[in-house]
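Researcher: Please generate the 3D structure of the following complex. Treat every line as part of one assembly.
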Amino acid sequence: MRHLLVPGAAFALLTALGELLVASVDLLPLNPAMAREAVVSDDALRLLFALAVPVGAFTLAALLYGIWAFRRRGDPAEDGPPLRGHRAVTVAWLVVTTALCLVVIVNPGITGLAAMAQSGDADLVVGIAAQRWSFSSSYPQHGVTKAKELVLPVNRRVRLELTAVDVVHGVWIPAFRVKKDAVPGITTAMYVTPTRLGSSDGAVNLRMQCSQLCGLAHSTMTMPVRVVTDAEFQAWVARNKG
Amino acid sequence: MSALIRAIAWGVVGSVLGAAAVVIVRAATGQDLLDFGQVTLAAYPLGLAGWLLGIGVWDQWAREWFGLPLRHVPPHGWRRYFAFTQDHKVIGIQYLVTFTVLLLLAGLFAMLIRIQLLRPSGALLDMNQYNTVMGWHGIVMIAVAVAMVMGGFANFVVPLLIGARDVAFPRVNALSYWLVPPVAVLLLLAFLAGGWDSGWTAYPPLATVNADGQLLFNLAIVTFGLSSILGGLNFIVTIATLRAPGMTWGRVPIFVWSVLAASLLSFTVTQFLAAAMIMEILDRVAGASFFNAAQGGAPLLYQHVFWFYSHPAVYIMVLPGMGIVLEILSHFSRKPLFAYRVAVAGFLGIVALSGIVWAHHLFVAGIGDEMLLPFMITTELISIPTGLVFLSALGTIWLGKLWLRTPMLFALGFVFNFLIGGLTGITLADVPTDMDLNNTYWVVAHFHYTIMGGEVFAIMAALYYWFPKITGRMFNETLGKIHFWWMFLAFNATFLLMFWVGLNGMNRRIASYPPELTGANQVVSAFSFALGASFLVFIVNLVWSWARGPRAAADPWHARTLEWQVPSPPPEENFPRAPEVIGHPYDYGVTGAAHAAFAAPAEGGGTR
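Model: Done. Output below.
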């Protein structure tokens, strides 16, 4: 009985502690969410952590209690009980792990996939051209081409259309939590809705960074990103037209 | 040694003949004499053939194709290790020593990476050096992870565990090993040929247009793949046909099951890796345009073919690791392996699922949206068979009499580390979180938890566990325990913090990073140096104990499996008295149970 109560208590304690940490600690202090998609991603991450905590706590409690309670000093003088298996435990284990797996598939899996909404119409279309080792942006609806920064109006849904001319690149904006590869020969797309004003100067992770190894200067392949008001966006477009 | 010198000489002659042929043809057709790609493609296969024929394929194998008598005088003593020796135990030691050296070398490269990342602008290397060092660390560690257990421990131990005289195809086995040195030579030569800047994944079109070092990388991987396929074939046949009388499938030790599971994978999926490499070679040297979009090629095609091998490959690495851990947990808990059949089902479930999850590496690569959901589901389903392995591990130690010797500590460390590796992996199977975490340091931390915290800890467990059997000597237990605790703590400190670095905006494979992440990277680096230093304890213990350690008894762990029922080290014929299996390998605590009986000495001689 002791072998059930003590690890059971440890499991409960570790779970409570873990859930408390997941709920209270900001694991991304340098990387606040700055887009609708980032909130979806962060919520999914927190949910996965919350689901992982009891699984980890159970395994840890069993493992650590097992080591502590069943350890022996010196050479093994005797064998343990000849316990080859336990049908009920195995069935219960299989049922619980399968159920957990199905939960994760449905939520945040299927629900998150829908919430990320990476298809359909957008308020603004921006082309991102990747080439070793720089990005450029173009705004076909506004006649802006080959800009050396990404400027987006706040709270507008944007489709980024990605192309690469030489090798595979990756377009990642950490503060938005979205990335997609830019592949020679095809156009790929990702959708983002920035929700907070800011610029690369103030927010280190509001930057476009190449996320797919592209050779020599891959590390330094970045482009500044700014999220501005509608009025500032219109002014920027007017200045950069032509 | 004479065979080794002849192998090198024939290898050089072959290479020169191949190169000369290309130069002559180019001269005759009025082109520039030298073309690195064409010369290499002609020189390497002939050089490789010369090397293999010289080391022993000619004397021990090919002569009979021409009606000539074989010339096989097996060398004795240390010379066996430098020859085309067919004894599985010698080949196992050849693999183990070779890949331990490669493990340490690639570990030094990891130290270079961490020195570089002490400063946000890079502290040591220029960008091309960094890319090559990072790629070298990656591919050599992958090779170590694939071959250390499957080539080393599986070779030494599996025939003993199943009561066999040797593997099914001893010459194929020797061939598998002697294909490895050319791989290491090619990867080292790649540094001289401009390095390669595409990492171990070698995505095209980059990998078809970059420096010449890439071609040597591609040829190395094709060669290594061949070695891996032949090894898989050999173990499948060995385990299927050479088990001792009475060793039914229900009595096969769990490590043997795991090697069979991994062999099924390496025998059936490695071809895809070789195909991907050969297509890149043809794009580079012959303008084949498999992956050249301007000529109708598809860069994404490579990624599918590559990961069709490379995801199952992580199970080629980790399945035998799980086998080792369950094996050790049972012997050192003095209890039968809990839910043995369920654990075997877990292994086979992992094998089955591993072939249909590859596209999770491509969630953000530009594949169709229709692929996301099915591959998210299949990937997350793998947690179910993996969970069965955890059930077996925890059930085995429960109520046991735990004997916390060094091998047991590493096996328990595996369970802890793999738990973290598994739980963090779910965030990469989930599309919404993977869109951010893909290709960040979160991924780096995750796969180091599974491959280093998992498989390398299992390798260490196996090294200490079978060290007495392999060398005939005991290691120093105190140094072993110091090694475990030092490595375990330093490992977790290094890679736990790496998760945080990834969450906060650091992508992988970069030689420089935003200054805001400097502090965290310096702490990671400091702990990584401690992790690297822990291997010094390991080397000292290994080398000193092998030379001077006390003689080991036949069965220092009081374990029941067959390898412990013969002297340490085992005699050349393995079993002086033929074993007959009469019970389960893990029947600890069962009164009167026995795993095997041995024939009377008069009948002995190991005819199998």
